[in-house]
């Protein structure tokens, strides 16, 4: 008779960890905006400022900074929903996908956006998460991920028009390169090829 041995520490469900991480990230956004407002918006200077040495700092900091509470409020619900969905099917993969979106989005804005502009906000992550969630299921051929991706597309498809220029004061470059980062993350982190590569013949006994 086979017996199972407990490890002594039960593994926390991924959805619970995803909720805690996403909630902590949103709390960080709000704390930073409170500090920014109290300091006379001193933190706004740390956004992405294209093709300047100081602006490189914004690649790391811009997604957690916002230009006022209205800006933050408009991003909060999408961050909660999309951030949670990105992490819920795998914390490590979701965090790595977010890192790819973060870097590609910020670097793309720094290289391409208009000089003397300043870009900040979590929308670079939001657009990246949308594309990542829509694309990854089809690449992985995972029915649950496809279902999530279709749902995200139905809810947020109109938002993707934000990758196009036209609205004054909106960083369409951040939206565009965030979306590109999301697609790259889905391609780089696909699990289907790894499974196929490991699917070797193993006889049963």
TrEMBL record:
<feature type="domain" description="Peptidase S54 rhomboid">
    <location>
        <begin position="58"/>
        <end position="189"/>
    </location>
</feature>
<keyword id="KW-0472">Membrane</keyword>
<feature type="transmembrane region" description="Helical">
    <location>
        <begin position="170"/>
        <end position="189"/>
    </location>
</feature>
<dbReference type="GO" id="GO:0004252">
    <property type="term" value="F:serine-type endopeptidase activity"/>
</dbReference>
<feature type="transmembrane region" description="Helical">
    <location>
        <begin position="146"/>
        <end position="164"/>
    </location>
</feature>
<dbReference type="InterPro" id="IPR022764">
    <property type="entry name" value="Peptidase_S54_rhomboid_dom"/>
</dbReference>
<keyword id="KW-1133">Transmembrane helix</keyword>
<keyword id="KW-0812">Transmembrane</keyword>
<keyword id="KW-0645">Protease</keyword>
<dbReference type="GO" id="GO:0006508">
    <property type="term" value="P:proteolysis"/>
</dbReference>
<dbReference type="InterPro" id="IPR035952">
    <property type="entry name" value="Rhomboid-like_sf"/>
</dbReference>
<dbReference type="GO" id="GO:0016020">
    <property type="term" value="C:membrane"/>
</dbReference>
<feature type="transmembrane region" description="Helical">
    <location>
        <begin position="14"/>
        <end position="32"/>
    </location>
</feature>
<feature type="transmembrane region" description="Helical">
    <location>
        <begin position="95"/>
        <end position="113"/>
    </location>
</feature>
<protein>
    <submittedName>
        <fullName>Rhomboid family intramembrane serine protease</fullName>
    </submittedName>
</protein>
<dbReference type="Pfam" id="PF01694">
    <property type="entry name" value="Rhomboid"/>
</dbReference>
<feature type="transmembrane region" description="Helical">
    <location>
        <begin position="119"/>
        <end position="139"/>
    </location>
</feature>
<keyword id="KW-0378">Hydrolase</keyword>
